[in-house]
Amino acid sequence: MDRLAARGHCSIGWFYGFKLHIIPSKTGEIIDVMLTPRHTDDRKPLRREGFISKLFVKLVGDKGYISKELFSQLFFR
Question: Total structural domains in the chain?
């Protein structure tokens, strides 16, 4: 795992490790997960159709998920 982990930066400071992206159901059950290196753009998992096809009602995330392109892609699905 050490070879896969990466150093990344956020508003709090520098981190070493991974990001966990989770798609839960309306009842809180985990439908899908994706683990990415820390330096990976938060929006990258949402570019994979197999991952976003499992989104149902809302996407909740921090400001790292914000983009006009992503909004259009998800809003008009």
Answer: 1
